[in-house]
Every structure is written in structure tokens, then in C-alpha cells.
Amino acid sequence: MASVLRKLNCSLGSIAINVLLLALVCEARSVPTNNGGFIGTNGTNFMLNGSPFYFNGFNAYWMMHVAAQPTERGKVTQVFREAAAAGLTVCRTWAFSDGGDRALQISPGVYDERVFQALDFVISEAQKHGIRLILSFVNNFNDFGGRRQYAQWAQNAGIQINNEDDFYKHPILKRYYKKHVKSIITRFNTITRIVYKDDPTIMAWELINEPRCNSDYSGRTVNRWVKGMAALVKSIDSKHLLEVGMEGFYGDSTPNRKHINPGYQVGTDFITNNLVKGIDFATIHAYPDIWLSGQDDKSQMAFMKKWMISHWADSRRLLKKPMVLAEFGKSSKNPGYNIKKRDSYMDATYKTIDHLTKYGGTIGGSLVWQLMVPGMEPYHDGYQIILSEDASTKGVISRQSNQRASLSR
Q1: What are the tens digits of pLDDT across the range 77-120?
Q2: Which domains does the chain have, with CATH numbers?
Q3: What is the number of other CB atoms lying within 10 angstroms of the CB of residue 184?
Q4: Known active-site residue 247
Q5: List 125, 164, 206, 210, catalytic entry
Q6: pLDDT in tens, 24-43
Q7: This prediction's pTM
Q8: DSSP structure string for 243-285
Q9: Active-site position among 164, 243, 247, 327
Q10: Active site residue 389
């Protein structure tokens, strides 16, 4: 770079050089490297630049948390680099950390700028590697704060809170959440110089990771919340897609489908929540090794296929929206686990996706849980995949990436 400037200096005045450099900087800041444009939908298909967009992707919830330690940021870059090399083009990660260690949101509406800049870094690295992001606003569970932290904040302020399910009902807790949503969507990225709501690197927003409501199994409480929050998000940002964060449990609106659930309910309704205006695509998660613990691999895979086929059919026929298998994997903590079994499970899942795609779109892609790099043992949950160490699994993933990419051409 220095030699280029010396040559320029011989033929141009210093003012001209400054103008040229300023123009180059402005151009670099304003033009994202992701293959142009926002991802949208047309019927049951995702669309990019006028063509169907099919993808293979992954989860990496930990990215902002790790990036909050500057010495650890190389792990984020390495995962994006290895993911891109394997053809993965979408990543789902958290845009929340409420209270606790390396909190993004220290208290309602109060943020640690250092951690926010870590999220800026995650987005900038995704952009560099041509990977789109799905960013989740809050957790149903206690990890990284979640609904319990929102309830605790209200209690600390002297507000009477009955339980965590008040997150969906109490006006104060809903106000806390709305402030957070607005803070994320309108954030100015200190690295890319692009406001989040204007950045096509972000594929979609997610209202909440795996919503559940134990006090109302009908699903109506969560549904009312989804309606209100979807309207809020779309009033701030009309460019990005939005999804709920659903696992896929059927509710009271389709009693004939409840038998497909893995033996219990969680207070959500796959159909009514995804029919909400402003919700652009449906998601399902699948963990038969947890949901059907004790059953053999064959039975768990049979459930997996039935789960996917049922939601594919309903997304196509009732919702008329795209669907994403947003979480799936096989844990090394299961009895009898080995990498060959994991690869076989993932391959069978991918083949089911491809088979259903041939019969009418709808399943835009899947996001395996989850990618990491060496040296991240504290984050291991049994589902971690390290592409640089797991050559056979990388092969399964890469083949699926190529298959999905061929459909987008």
C-alpha cells in the first residue's frame, strides 16, 4: 500500500490523493460484499436478486460473547472462513446477552458499548466471508439472561411479577423488550458504517429463541405477543425478513396434528404463530435424541422425517411461506455415539430436505447446531462440530452446500 501511495504522490498532488482515498473509503463502507441485495420471499421460496435462494447453514450462538474478548476474535473469523470454505452461506447467532458475564444489555435499555462493538465485529466478519446472518433478540431460556432476566429486572424495580411467563403479558416487560429490539435494529455498526436495518448481510430477525409458555398451553398468550412484536419490528425495519424462532410444536388450532409432537406441549402453536402478518417464514427445530431419549437411532430418524414432512406440507399448504430447519444435530453425549452415526444422521436429514424441495420448494435450507473451532471446550454441548478436525462431517456438509447452491443457479 505504501509503495502505491509513493507512486501516486509523484504524479498527483496531496489534495488529489486525499480526495481519492476518501472516495475509496466511502465506497468500501457503503458496498457490502454479500452478493448484493436483501433476501426476500416469493410464495414458498426465498429470493435473492430475482432468483430462488437455497442455502446450507449453521448455528454459532456464541459469536458475540467470544468476540467481546478482543484476543478471542480470531475464533469468529476462523469459523466464518471454514464455513465459507464448506459452502455454508447462512449463520444464526444471538443478538442478546442480558445481564451476567459479558452482558450486552446490562439493564433495560443500557448497553455495554464494548460488547455491542463485538456484535459489530461479528456482522463485519460475516460480510467479509459472504455469509448472511439470522439474529435472535432474546432467549426463552436462562442462558445469556432470557425471559427470567427481564422478569428479574422488573422485580428489582419493585414491580409485581408472577412468573417468567409475564414476559409475554406484562406491559413493563414488553416495554423492556421493545426497547431492546429498537436498539438492535437501529444500531450503527462502528466497523461497516452501516445501520443494522440497512445491512443486507443480515438475512432475518428472530423474535425469540424457542418460545415457550407453561402457563398457557393453548398457545394464545404467545400468539398475542408474536402479533404485537412482529408489528413493532416491521414498523422499524421493512427491509429484513422476520421469523418467530419456533421449534414447531403444534397447538390447539390443529388438534389433528398434536400427535406429531414428541409427547408434550410447550404453549406454542406452529400454525397460528406463523400465519401472523409480518412473519415471513416458518422455522422448526429437531432434537429427537433429546425428545425421544431412550429410543434407538432408527426410531429417532423416523420421527425426524415425519416431523420435517408434516411441517413442510403445512408450510406449503396452510402457511404458503418458506420454512427453515433452524436447529438440528446429534450429540456426542448420547450412548453409543460415534462420528459415523452423526454423519449418517446429518446425511439422511439433508437428503430428506432435498427430496421435499423437489416436490415444491418451501424448505429453503437448514442450520446445523453448531460450529466451533479448537480451543472452545467451555462452549462444548455435545453437538459441536469442528470442521478442521472432523473431515468426514465436513464432507457431508460440503456436499449439501453444493447441492443447495446448484438449485440457486
Answers
A1: 999 999 999 999 999 999 999 998 999 999 999 999 999 999 99
A2: 1-31 (no CATH), 40-407 (3.20.20.80)
A3: 25
A4: no
A5: 210
A6: 333 333 333 445 799 999 99
A7: 0.91
A8: E--------TT-GGGGGGSSS---S--HHHHHTSTT---EEEE
A9: 327
A10: no
